[in-house]
Amino acid sequence: MGRLEDPVSAKPTILDVARVAGVSKSTVSLVLQKNPIVSEGARSRVLAAIRQVGYVYNRNAANLRQSRSNAIGIVVNDVTNSFFAEMAVGMDMIVQSAGFVQLMAHTGESVERQAEVLSAMLEHGVSGIILSPARGTRAADLKAHMAGPVPIVLAVRDLPGLRATTVVADNRAGSHEAARHLIGLGHCRIAWLGGFPDTSVYQTRLSGLRDAMAEAGLLFEEAYAVESNASRPGGVQAMGRLLDMPGHPMACMCVNDAVAFGACDGLRGAGLEPGRDFAIVGFDDVMGARTAVPALTTVATDPEAVGRRTAQILLHRISSGDVRPETITTPARLVVRASCGEPWSAGPVAAAGAVPEMR
């Protein structure tokens, strides 16, 4: 009586509740824990399913399971980007020495997957979480998580409007320095490749290029901001679209090194040689940047150092209970290598619109 037609086990389990409610096991657990991140609609379905299958929540057993573990959750938006592998090495140096282990998850830039991963990690009792938000994440998506008992520190990408502790590189300053370098080589037209406007990294790095060009009396042409996935294949595609534009610039800055590597591939596919026919600057200085051919000029953000700093902050939050939001900005500096080529002119570059184009 009161049961659904689908048969359930003699002693109903949390999986039975999840199946009847049409939600994940993690969502049922969060409802049982009275976690505020679950929507009212999902909460109502879960509570109705609990009544229908006759599930009894053993809170004493749950309390034992929910005691804090020695695990730290690491949630990244793109595990294929070597930046995050290097960042994870830095994190591990810190968390391992403190007696913790890392649990890493990949959201693939999916806000929905991100919500599932965060719920699962909280259910399994991680002591804290480091999160690089997926594309399109809004402050509202994380507000309930940030208000919960488990400390969460954001890394790489910040979210305007969210009261959170965030560790980010000085993206604008690094990009500004790189743009000044290209202008100093004689480029008065510079393209931007990779990324999408719905991330803070894209916005701050592109703003450095825009500002440097404006300060030199140059105009950044928005048509030459070519969006793509922030990956090597994305860089190939972005460079292809740029080369299809009549009168395109012969210099570009890329949202990260992965896009820059792809841009170099795209140039070679068109019969051009990076560093000789076209100037390219990356961002992050991942390990492959120094051994690339040509060696990649890039903005170093030191992913390992970012990982160490972020882990230190999270461990402090775990031990102290400090929840005050703050933004920690780590240095970014230009590393000049071969991918920008030689100066157009040995003389000083005028800081006005008469700067000659390299090609």
Automatic annotation (TrEMBL):
PROSITE patterns, alphabetized: HTH_LACI_1, HTH_LACI_2
Membrane-spanning segments: none
Record flagged with keyword Ubl conjugation: no
Domain HTH lacI-type: residue ranges: 12-66
Keyword set includes Plastid: no
InterPro entries, per the entry: HTH_LacI (IPR000843), LacI/GalR-like_sensor (IPR046335), Lambda_DNA-bd_dom_sf (IPR010982), Peripla_BP_I (IPR028082)
GO molecular function: DNA-binding transcription factor activity; transcription cis-regulatory region binding
Keywords: DNA-binding, Repressor, Transcription, Transcription regulation
PANTHER family from the UniProt entry: HTH-TYPE TRANSCRIPTIONAL REPRESSOR PURR-RELATED (PTHR30146:SF148), LACI-RELATED TRANSCRIPTIONAL REPRESSOR (PTHR30146)
This protein's name: Putative transcriptional regulator, LacI family
Taxonomic placement: Bacteria, Pseudomonadati, Pseudomonadota, Alphaproteobacteria, Acetobacterales
